[in-house]
Amino acid sequence: MSSADSPPWYVITGGPSSGKTTTVELLRGKGFEIAHEHASEIIAEEIVKGRTLQEVRADGEWFQKEILRRQQEHEDSLDPAQTVFLDRGIPDGLGYERFLKLTPNPELTAAAKATSYRRVFILDPLPVKLDWNRLEDEQTQHAIHDSIEAVYLELDNDVVEVPVLSPEERVEFILNRL
User: Fold this and answer.
1) pLDDT tens digits, 43-57
2) Whose CB among 9, 73, 112, 144 lies 3.0–4.6 Å from 91's, allowing a Cys bridge?
3) Which domains does the chain have, with CATH numbers?
4) Helix/strand/coil percent split, the chain, to 5
5) What's this model's pTM, rounded to 2 decimal places?
6) Residue 87: burial class (beta carbons within 10 Å; 0-12, 13-18, 19+)
7) Are 97 and 105 in contact (CB under 8 A)?
8) Other C-beta atoms lying within 10 Å of the C-beta of residue 129
9) SS3 letters for 104-153?
């Protein structure tokens, strides 16, 4: 399926601390349907169960499988006729898998190859802000960003790089390129 034949679903992605969530929330404020990323949700659930962020992140293969499961379930529930902005897409997991040098998950690889989005917006990195679910430094941030971008390009997605701008200007940049 070419990107033109894909549902009007647009991925907002990039490395950690690139402004994805802020951008997606601003798009929601403009009346668009959004889909949150699942990693933070999983981390929060596991912390409530008593695990540390480091323990959750150290279980990389389980973590990526759980993100994939939830992402697929969520995307399966979306209306293919409705415009949706996704905070990360299925191929992001493949980028993380490669960056973390995890054992390749054939299910993730197949899902990433089978998924088609109308367009993928990759946000250029912003200064790293550590918080309750981030451990990455600037070097790691850029390496993850590059890995994710490489996956989307390898999978022949229609990729648009979004420069560092104010959050509102990023949203306008994206909307002008739908």
Assistant:
1) 889 999 999 888 888
2) 112
3) 3-175 (3.40.50.300)
4) 50, 10, 35
5) 0.91
6) buried
7) yes
8) 8
9) CCHHHHHHHHHCCCCEEEEECCCCCCCCCCCCCCHHHHHHHHHHHHHHHH
